[in-house]
Amino acid sequence: MSVYQLKSRFQDILRPLVRSLAARGITANQVTSVAAAVSVALGLFLSIAPLPRCFLLVPVWFLLRMGLNAIDGMLAREHGQKSILGAYLNEIGDVISDAALYLPFALIDPNDMMPAMAVIFLSALTEFAGVLGQTVGASRRYDGPLGKSDRAVLFGALGLFITVGGTFAAWTFWLWAMVALLLVWTIINRIGAGVREAHRAAR
């Protein structure tokens, strides 16, 4: 199971808003660029000024960003705005945004930032594995158990934890280790699913 599987219901809720935005001339690439820019700005702000109360912005922004990600995709698919540039912006923007938003959590870990940095690296590799499906004759893979939406829930929960006065300690190492294992599992699932899909398409 993955949060990604709830995407279709989320899109149904947003569809009237998307039609309104399209009518106003808002483009998918504009939405994608704004989402990436705000993500990077928020990540830099929390890295420089890691005040606990400010981490409440993380779950709030992740929720808004999930909405913006759904909106840009719907504008592209349902309103004739698909473009090669948009595909690049979408994939690169997501990886950069995730790295920027995860980085503050690595910086506030009093033990060692390397486990969290490994999670950031594996998160990027997870999306790379998903995109590679398209290069071998399969679709863009979104298999779990820890895709982008699932990570948004995880880091949003961590943001709430910090906001209410929670602190990282020795247990954090085991948290990052578990997350890393789930990311490796996700990478394996995406590669395996992509290979199977490509083989079926080639028959």
Automatic annotation (TrEMBL):
Pfam families for this protein: CDP-OH_P_transf
Protein name: CDP-alcohol phosphatidyltransferase
Record key words, sorted: Membrane, Transferase, Transmembrane, Transmembrane helix
GO biological process, any: phospholipid biosynthetic process
Organism, as annotated: Rhizobium esperanzae
Organism superkingdom: Bacteria
Transmembrane segments: 113-132, 152-169, 175-193
InterPro entries named among the record's database cross-references: CDP-OH_P_trans, CDP-OH_PTrfase_TM_dom
GO molecular function list: phosphotransferase activity, for other substituted phosphate groups
Gene3D superfamilies, per the entry: 1.20.120.1760
Any single Gene Ontology cellular-component annotation: membrane
Keyword Cell division: no
